[in-house]
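Exam prep: given the inputs below (a chain plus arginine), describe the expected output before reading on.
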Amino acid sequence: MSKVWSNRFDATLNPFIERFNASIFFDKQLIIEDIDCSIAHAHMLGKTNVISKEDAKKIINGLKLIKSDYSLGKFKPDFPSEDIHYSIEERLIELIGDVGKKLHTGRSRNDQVATDIRLWLRKKIDVIDNLIFALQKSLFLIAEKNLYLLIPGYTHMQRAQPLSLAHHLLAYIEMFQRDKERLREVRYRVNISPLGAAALAGTKIKINREITASELGFEKIYQNSIDAVSDRDFAIEFISTSSLIMTHLSRMSEEIILWVTDEFRFAKLTDKCSTGSSLMPQKKNPDVPELIRGKTGRVFGNLQALLTTIKGVPLAYNKDFQEDKEPLFDTVKTVSDCLQAMTILLNEGLVFNENNLMKAVEEDFSNATDIADYLVNKDIPFREAYQIVGKIVKHCMLRKILFKDLNIEEFKKFNTNFQEDIYEFIHPTNVVKSRNSLGGTGFEQVKRQLDIWKKELLD
Ligand code: ARG
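Solution:
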């Protein structure tokens, strides 16, 4: 295979260094985008008469042939080509002869790789956007069914106030909505064409950057050729956005792992999404959420890696940039896989224990604030009411009973304003129902949120 190196070189590369230098092992993933980028470039070279229309046609047909050969498994880019860009160019020359050597007129691998990676990431962002949408939909369908199912709400991992399970799940839908917004913003900055910036300074060949940008569906064009080839902000932004997606998935995983323990028993895993132990026959392990939680570390690592790689790189292109691909590729794969796995887990892997959940909220002091609110309704200042309830809690804890186990006479000993309706007032369902401030867990509020999300996710 002939190398497209210039005649400046007398000797060939040391074989170890040749491999060390190569990126083909991983950048072959960019094959479709690289061919599309070259087709657009060749089109433009023909339209602007930089090369003849006939030559442009031959080049484009050659590139299309490589694409179909690739999809048929007849062409497999690989070492010793240094990278995907060389691999395609070499193949083109092999297929159509010397005219193939005209393809690289007025461009450099620097603007080429910058273009390819944007085209690739733009597609992946759209896929991830859809995966988030699917996950939100699954969350919604469970939420919709569980408006009146209660779950203990926690702060500091201590029982705080009971919640509608729907409300709890809708919180995740909100988080993932912000992730989609961030992704769309990143997409906007990914969708800018660097093609035509050439090595770093532009070119004296009479190219037309608008033609390639529009053929490749870019929204805008980089206005500074140096920035065009040395900007990797978009990749960092994408991994940063992905880190937040993973953070959300990881928090959800952590909750699921807790919910399915013997200590909580809020939910159980079906056989479709849980695994056994090789030693302990009684076990059913939450491997899926554990893996998602674990893989979050990879994505954070990728973010750190890319930030560190880029931070010391002077303008313009430096080979360090070749190191942008693996963290980016790994992030796309990890986030996509985790979103899918979580969606499957929600759809068929997780069943809530309705009885245990309802029982859980009845067996704690998470209605303490409601007793204080009851007294506030009787015109007792909140801080005073708070202290009165503190005494009641202490009393009940010493006797190992709950509020509802106190008879009305006992209640009255703490404050004469207590009436029979206190029992209704502190019943968990009423406790939840009455938290009707905007965005609260009150059923009316949650119903309103469900209606909004139904339009957004199911219409
Ligand atoms: N494989 C290289 C990369 O991924 C392509 C660009 C090489 N450019 C250069 N001037 N050596 O960054």
